Amino acid sequence: MAAFALAAWAACTPLRAAPVITTIAEDSFAYTANAPLPGNNGGTGWSGPWASDSNFFTSFNVGAASLTVPGLTSSGGRIVFRTGGSLLNDSARSLPLQNTGVVFVQFLSQFSTQSGGGTPSIRLFSGSTIAGGAGNNGSCGSPVYAILDSTLQAPIASACSTVPLSTLAAVVLRIDYTANNTRMWVLSSLTGFDYLNPPAPSAEYAGLAPAFNKIAVYTRNPGTLDELKVFRVSESPAAPQPVPVGGLALWGAMAGALALLAARRLHSKR
Question: Which sequence ranges are marked TM in the entry (predicted)?
C-alpha cells in the first residue's frame, strides 16, 4: 500500500527543469584561416569587432581548427599566436557593461609552460582600467591557471588552481557581483557540469568581482583560445508532469491506501 501511495505521489510531483542559459556575447572564431584577427566581427552580442589592444604588440591570427573538449560543441576556428612579430600577441573586443547579478565567462585555452610579463592573461577591462582576469603573471609559484586581480596577480593562495597553463582546458569563471566573489573551474571536460550547482571550484577569490565591458587576450608563443562566451544562468520554473488519465481516481486510491495503512498500524498497537 505504501509503495502504491508513493508511486501515486511521484506521478504528480513537479520535475526540476534544466538550467536556462542567456547568452550575452559569444564568438567561435569562424573567420578566414591564417588571417589577422582584428577587424573580424562575427559572433553575437559584442559592441564592435576585434581590435589590437596595444600599439606595442602583434595581434593574433585565426587558426583553421577549433579546440575541443567533451561536453562542449565547438565550431569555426580559434585564435593562435602570430609569429614573426613581437614576443607578445594581444587582441580585444568590447561588449555591454557587466556589473550586476551573476555572470559567467567561459573559454577553451592552452598556453605556454611559462608565466610572467603580463601573460598569459584574459583581461577584463572596465573602460580603460584592468579590473581582473584569468591566466597567470608569475604568481602561484608555478605556471598554473589562476584568478587575477587588477594588478594581474593572484595574491592569495585560493586564487591559484593546480592545473598547468599548458593543459588544454575549459575555463569557467563565475563572477558574483552581489556576493563580491569570483570562482573558476579549469576542466578537461564539461560533460555533466552543473552551472547552477557546480562542484568545488579549481580556484576562488573572495572580495573580487571585476565589472567589465571589454575582454582582451594577451599571450606569448604558444597560445591559443576558442569558444569565448559570456552568459547568465537561471533556473526555469519547475513544470509539473501531466496528470495521468484517471488522476482524480489515483489520488482517491492513494488517500484510501494511506487510511488503510494507518488503521492497520492502530490495530496492531492494541
Answer: 243-263
Q: How far apart are CA 206 and CA 247, in angstroms?
A: 50
Output the CA angle 78-113-88, nearest 5 degrees.
60
State how far the Cα of 213 lies from the Cα of 223, in Å rounded to an integer. Answer: 23
Top CATH class, 19-234: mainly beta
**Which residue in 72, 33, 1 sits closest to 229, CA to CA?**
72
Contacts of 232 (CB under 8 A, 6+ apart): 21, 22, 24, 101, 102, 103, 104
**Nearest C-alpha neighbor of 152 from the set 82, 205, 226:** 205
Q: Which amino acid is at 241?
A: Q
> pTM of this prediction?
0.83
Helices vs. strands in the chain: H and E counts, helices first: 2, 14
Which DSSP state fits 29? -
Q: Nine-digit cell at 1?
A: 500500500
Shortest CA distance to 24 belongs to which of 40, 41, 44, 42? 44
Note the pLDDT of residue 67: 98
DSSP 221: S
Place of cell 492494541: 270
Residue recorded with cell 573538449: 69
- What whole-number distance in Å separates Cα of residue 126 and Cα of residue 67? 28
How far apart CA 82 and CA 31 sit, in angstroms, is: 15
pLDDT by residue (tens digit) across 17-63? Answer: 678 999 999 999 999 999 999 999 999 999 999 999 999 999 999 99
CA 253, CA 5: separation in Å to the nearest integer? Answer: 8
Longest CA span, the chain: 93
Instruction: Provide CB contacts within 8 A for 155, sequence distance 6+.
Output: 139, 149
Q: Domain boundaries in the chain?
A: 19-234
Looking at residue 247, the DSSP 8-state letter turns out to be H
